Amino acid sequence: MRVTKGARIVAGTALLAVAVAACGGGGGGTATNDGGGSSAQPVRVDIAKPQHELSPTNTNDTSGAEVLNALFVGLVDYDKDKNVILRGAESIEPDAESKMWTIKLKDGYKFHNGEAVTAKSYVDAWNAAAYGPNVQEGGHFFSAVKGYEDVAPVDPDGEEGPQKAPEPKAKTLSGLKVVDEKTFTVELAHPYSGFKTMLGYTTFMPMPSAAFDGNGGIKREFGENPIGNGPFKMAKPFKLATDTTISMVRYDEFVEGKAKIDAVEFKISSDKGTSWNELRAGNLDIMDQLPPEAIATAKQELGDRYIEQPSSGVGYFGFNARNGEEWAKNPELRKAVSMAIDRKTITEQVFSGTRVPADDFVSPIVAGYRKGACVECVYDPAKAKALWDKNGGGKGPVSLSYNGDGGHKEWIEAAANNLRQNLGVEVKVDAFESFAAILDELDKGKVTGGFRMAWIMDYPSMENYLRPIFGTGGSSNHGRYSNKDFDELLVKGDSAKSDEEGVKFYQQAGDMLVKDMPYIPVYFYQTNAGYSQRVKNVTIDPFERIDLAKVERVS
Amino acid sequence: MGRYVIRRLLQAIPVLLGSTFLIFCTVYALPGDPVMILGGERRIDPVLAAQLREQYGLNDPLIVQYWNYISGVFVGDFGETFQGVQVADLFAGKFQVTIQLAVTALIIEALVGLGLGLYAALRRGRWQDHAVLALTLLLVSVPTLVSGFVLQLVLGVKLKTELGIDFFPISGTEAGWRSFLVPGFVLAGTSIAYLVRLTRTSLMETLRADYIRTAVAKGMPRSRVLGRHALRNSLIPLVTYLGADLGTLMGGAVITEAIFNLNGIGQQLFQSVARRENAVVVGVVTVLVLVYLLANLIVDLLYAVLDPRIRYE
């Protein structure tokens, strides 16, 4: 054997290094046992990974909102019929034109560190969210408040231009004023009767003085270990980058009464199919969204413990009515397309019943939704064909665009087949590689025909389904629909004396959409949730958040 | 010997620089604006978008962005993600998970692959040999997605709910080394099949060699013939394969990590490519290139141990 001694030593050392690395790794994994050891296991809730650290100001995703909802309580909440009910607020009163709102707080709410929740807790948090340089996801929610353009100025030459966005003129919103310990006023930029409905979202929750860095910003540590005013408090800090669980324990002094369960653990999972297996094996208690392939089995195996209810999402086809293909510019032809799509089969076959056919421009979860409001959303191939031919629809080609990264291929193809069969046209299906890419092309007006689009509400009001998408210059008006009468009806709705009166105007605006069909609603999203035998009283709100304070253990 | 190792390590530097630059360009060239992708299905506020672009230097030309990144790496700063997380912190926990998974997979692969290959070679032409070959076909043809979920359902859910045996966790890493057994096997699946076939062929060839016949003829014990002469001489292609496979197992575990909810580097890489997070993607690639280079170096050095005729100067 003439192996050089050096080679042996080097190879040996290298192998040893690999082995040590492997063993070293082994230690880390086993360390996480059930730490507390007090009573039973915590209630384990499945979530996807939150987008950001846990700060109300910087959360705009369902997982983050779910977690924060256990830690914080805001001014209002929503009852079973999606009506606004007061929670942290004693009263929320508008002036005569719904522009100046006075908010009074209830006594007794405290942060987990003992600090009382005051008007300042709200005003400071809202100012921090809105202040442009803080780069918070929730910032745009405050664009309705007076002074928003001074704290978050717009880049003068657009996003692409060389100039930077100017320095904000002010650090705080001029529309927010603390009156006394328990009262503050909000002045809006424009009258808006539905302002109260906005306030239930995570962005509007109060934050303790410990959260702020003294410079108008939010401390980084706060996002890892948030101090809330809700039924649960953090058991240990959460590191977004590496942690796979978020642990909370009950906050015993919660003024609305102690939660029924003593501990909650959010488990971050990457695959809903896996989470479903965990639920079946009893390693998980609540899943707020089941994977489509599990729905049939879940109905059988869970029985009463399976929840199915509408959620806020609406799926559409939009059209380039400005400079697109001829058919896309003609409202009658768009109606023909709408009637040629078999929504029922698509939602049942392609989505396994996790979506339902759309019959209005707004989701069933908001007040003002009318069943069957969109008359041309009903499948009627004969009528569709007649309408198409009468208005000179011709042979196409009809192009439909969608983003290939969101699992939309199957239903777009199904809809395309509907059009081919029922209208006798040539259909071209274009996949863009991402949602961002399709938005780019839409901005440039380069998408020629129809395109897939969806909307998830920011707050449960009809207005939120109308203005951003169809209002002139709306932030998500990708079809560039513009109708003066429609805009006027929205303004009338905003300045109405009451919610009910406002809804009437919004519904009239909705009727104009049915007439013009700038988009065609295709399906409503649904929440398909399930829970284990160990818990009961699981309810889910319009923002897809679980009310964990009400969840009980089955003993 | 020492000089050889140092020369190899120095050669790694241009390889690293070149590969990181290539990857940086590739991610840069991907269509879609990272800031808009950050918004997902929602539209990002233009003010917010402009600020994010400024903050992450996305308005700079490609070469400036690369320089900003790589000059940071030299002083130990791997940059941060769009969510403001330090890439170095991100890696700490995730590479640990991935290394555990890859090493478990490699051990399973080596044990099962070599074992079955040896068995098949010794039973050449008999039914056991055919059975092993059929098994490898099965391993190659079942996709990870299927084998992962089937094994998860059978070993994780059914074993626990039907028989009360709670040995294989369904997902996660709470159960320590046991957590990696099923994912390790799933990840190694295809590689096992190749290794079985490679071992079988390589060993069968060696067993036909003259020196084996001589060894048997002079009455050497069978175990010594097999272990000392046959196996050792067949090992060179197998070690080469195993060495190269370590890198593949570490970088290619996207699906396995997702199915078994392992918070590792594969998933991170997938998300970061989707989000156009150059700092993370390039960082991961840098580490993977290092793993490949080191594994190859070890393999080359092992050649000298296995075959005395090979020497490095």
From TrEMBL, chain A:
GO biological process: peptide transport
Signal peptide positions (record): 1-24
Gene3D superfamilies membership: Dipeptide-binding Protein, Domain 1 (3.90.76.10), Dipeptide-binding Protein, Domain 3 (3.10.105.10), Periplasmic binding protein-like II (3.40.190.10)
CDD domains cross-referenced by the UniProt entry: PBP2_NikA_DppA_OppA_like (cd00995)
Pfam families assigned: SBP_bac_5
Top-rank taxon, per record: Bacteria
Keywords, in A-Z order: Signal
A GO term from the CC aspect: periplasmic space
Occurrences of domain Solute-binding protein family (ranges): 89-476
GO MF annotation, one: peptide transmembrane transporter activity
PANTHER family registered for this protein in UniProt: ABC TRANSPORTER SUBSTRATE-BINDING PROTEIN (PTHR30290:SF83), PERIPLASMIC BINDING COMPONENT OF ABC TRANSPORTER (PTHR30290)
UniProt protein name: ABC-type oligopeptide transport system substrate-binding subunit
Automatic annotation (TrEMBL), chain B:
Pfam families in the cross-refs: BPD_transp_1, BPD_transp_1_N
Keyword set, alphabetical order: Cell membrane, Membrane, Transmembrane, Transmembrane helix, Transport
Domain ABC transmembrane type-1 per the UniProt entry, residue ranges: 95-303
Topology in the lipid bilayer: Multi-pass membrane protein
GO annotation (BP), single: transmembrane transport
Ranges that cross the membrane: 12-30, 99-120, 132-155, 175-196, 238-260, 280-306
InterPro entries linked: BPD_transp_1_N (IPR045621), MetI-like (IPR000515), MetI-like_sf (IPR035906)
A Gene Ontology cellular-component term: plasma membrane
Subcellular location: Cell membrane
Family assignment from sequence similarity: Belongs to the binding-protein-dependent transport system permease family.
Protein name, entry field: Peptide/nickel transport system permease protein/oligopeptide transport system permease protein
